[in-house]
Structures are given as C-alpha cells and as structure tokens.
Design goal:
Layout lengths: L11 H11 L3 H6 L2 H21 L3 H8 L2 H33 L7 H36 L45 E9 L8 E10 L6 E5 L7 E2 L11 E2 L6 H7 L10 H14 L5 E6 L2 H8 L3 E5 L3 E7 L6 E6 L2 E5 L1 H9 L6 H18 L2 H6 L1 H11 E3 L6 H7 L9 E4 L6 E4 L7 E3 L1 H13 L1 H8 L2 E2 H4 L6
Parallel strand pairs: 1-6, 3-12
Antiparallel strand pairs: 1-2, 2-3, 4-5, 6-11, 7-10, 8-9, 12-15, 13-14
Helix pairs in contact: 1-5, 1-6, 4-14, 5-6, 6-13, 7-8, 9-10, 9-13, 10-11, 15-16
Amino acid sequence: MSHPDTAPSSSKPWLAAIASAIVPGVGQFVAGDSRRGRLLLLVDVAILVVVFLWFRDKTQFLIHWIKPTSLAIMMVANIVLLGYRLWAADDAYRIAKRRTGESGATPAGAMLVAGLGLGLLILLPHAWFGYIDMKQYDLLTSVFVASPTTTTTTVPNTPPPTDSTGSTVTSSTTSTTPAQSPWDGFERLNILLIGGDFGEGRTGIRTDTMITVSIDPATGESAMFSVPRNWTQSPLPDGMGIWDCNCYPELINELWVAGERWPDAFPGPGTPSENAVKGIISEFLGIPIHYYAMVNLDGFVDVIDALGGVEIYVPSQVIDEEYPSEDGKGTERIVIEPGLQKMDGHLALAYARTRHQDSDYFRMNRQRCVIEAVMQQADPASLLLNFGKFVDVIKRSMTTDIPLDTLPSLVELMPKVDLENVVSVRFIPPEYHLKFRDDGKAGRVPNIELVHEHVALVIADPERAVTELGLSQLDDVCGDPNA
C-alpha cells in the first residue's frame, strides 16, 4: 500500500509552479519552503502598495493612462513583473522537485503540455497589457500635439450683461485657479467640439456640429453653446478675411473648406482651417476658443458596433425617405420608431445625421443625445476587449490641437463638472435671427449682439440665465424614457 503523499508527488512541482505563477510565494508554501514563501508574499504586498499609491483613485488612474512617460514606466514595470513571476514559478518548481526527491525525468509529452500551459498562464496577461499600453501610447502621440502652443483666438470687447433696469450683472464666482495649473489666468476654459461630416462622396469637411464647452476652472461651472450650421455673414476677427463685408459670407459649416481654399484669409497659430473655425466661432460667441477637437461622425459606426450597439430614447418617430448612405453612393429609407431603441452603428449615425423630416435644429439635439448615450453606456469590458479597434477609429476620426502636456490637468478638472447641471444654449432662429441674406442666397444672418449678451449672462449668472432665457439642462434635451 502506497503512502498518501506518494501519489501526487510527481505533480507537486507543477502545482507549486502554477501557484507561484498566480501569486508568487504561494508555490513556495506548496513546495514546503515557508520561509521563502513568506519573503515573496512580502514582496507581493509591497508591489500592491506601490500599485495602490500609483492608481489610488479613478482620476489618478486616468492621469497616468494619458501620460506617455507613465505608459513607458508601466511597460517597464510590466516586463519586470513578468520576469518576477517567471522566476517565482521556476523557483517553486525546483524546490518542490528537490523536496519530493524526484530524480527521474518527466515524460516529454507531459513536460510539453505542462510547460505550455504554465507559459500561457504567465505570458498572456503581460502580452495583453503590453499591447494595450503600446496602442494607448500610439494614440496619444499620434492625435495630440506634442507641446503646448498659443492657440487662444482674439475676440472683441464684449459688454457685460445687464438686467431689465440697465444695471450691470456681476458674477458671484471666483476665477482663481490652483497654482502651476495650465488654466492660470483663464476665467473660462473654452473647448470647441466639432462633428465633421466628411464621408465618401463629399467634397471637403463640413463642420455640421459645433458645440463650445465653457468651464470655470475654479468651480467646474459649465455651459454648452451650440451654433447651427446654416448661419451666414458671421463676423471675422481682426486680421482675417478677404471679403468686403468684413465677414464670412457663406454657411458657417463650410469654414474648414474655406480655410483650405483661401489659406491667406485665415492667418494664425494653427492651420488655416483651424484658424477659420476657431476664430469665427470665437467671434460669433464673443469668447476666446482655446482648443478644438473634431470627430468624424462616421467614426461612430465602428465605435457603436464595437460596443454591441447603444440604447437611445426616441421622443417621436423619425422618417427619412432619402437618407444618404455612408459611402455616398446612394440613398435609403430610414424609419425609427418612438421609444427606447437599441441601435447599431449605422442606425445611430442615421438618427444623428438625418434632417429631412424636421430641421438642423432638431438634428443638433439628436447628435448630442447620441453622444451622451455612447458616453453613458460604454462598457469597460467592451472597451478593453476592443481597445485596438477603438484606437484605430479614434486615430482615423479625430483631429485636435489640445496639447498632450495639458491632458492630465484637463482630467483633474473633469470631476468638478456637474454634468446634470450643464446649461445648454442653442443659438437658433427665430430668437437669434436678425435678417435674411441681402443677395438672395440661402442662409440667415445672426443677431450677434444678442448672442454675445446671452453668452455673457450664462457665464456670469447661469441660474438667472436658465430662468430668464428659458434654457434647458443637458438632461432635458434627450427626453425621459420613463415618462
């Protein structure tokens, strides 16, 4: 009759190796060397403490995830940790082999199977993390500019808002920012978000969605200003333009193409197209535009499909008998019923782009609702499993002048922003319509003076602006699925 410890003795070295591959030190206990096991477990605890301090909260994790230097450190740490786990597994195997007194060779087949299994157990998570790390590094260094540049546009002196008695409205908030912050001296941080429609079959980039997010760096108080695509004769900043009207006479969504067509008309720190869009939106709103980020709306198709679709509440039926396909080679009939709908990328893009049933102004709402739904429903597991695809889509679809060095400070600013209380303003007719064009062409001329007055009021006193101007909070725009 065999001794109870005899039967498993041949498998004990492999069990010890597997245990230490998972948690270095545990395999040493299995092998019978508790002293070395305790020492390695202390090393494990030290590693966990360092990781905890490095990623002690969500904001800290995001900051490290968007810093190339941190990504490089994490890659080195990943390689070192791989070596540590390999050594611990091998050490546990050798201890167990020696203590069980096995001298015979393990069969080649069993050795191969066990070795491959152990190797995959150790290598796969490090290979996966290395892949994610490299893709993130590539994304950051490809999309964002390498160093800060002066990109603030010049705006006219805008008079402060006044109340019904003519008294000047003053803001009750402070504009003090933390020391050594890139937002020092910024009363507001203004970032222009652009939805560019530049799919196949179209000439140039049409900036059909233009939303400026304005944030008080000290308090996080925020507002969103949406400029429709069909305003014309928008005022130009000093030093820009070649037109007698001292304005950009055509539809405002053609600014990117205008920068390519007349580069000398839009001087500045960026490309002519960037200068054109930022400069004229700045002049339109009466506030400086510090940075912009433009995303090709067609890129949403791949993103949403990778997420497995997105649920969007549709307040009323949407029908488009001639919706242009993404490849620009034809049209199709789109029907989206009211209620909570699960949409794939193609249908979600159609919902965001169609305007034949109603108007650009309803489309502006739908685009914002699609973006909000994607942000809320992005599943971390789906993001990680499809990370490479997401990176490729973002690289292909996004253009920005946000400096890479300012991203950590931007992430630190985000927790201050109360998304449920972001004041939303759409500068649409008839309230902001001044007149039609004198030359008979399509398009409306905006009441810029009224726009400036309302922007200044929202920034100075958002609560009063919501009441007096009948503005909406962001959540009010997309409807209530429980209503």
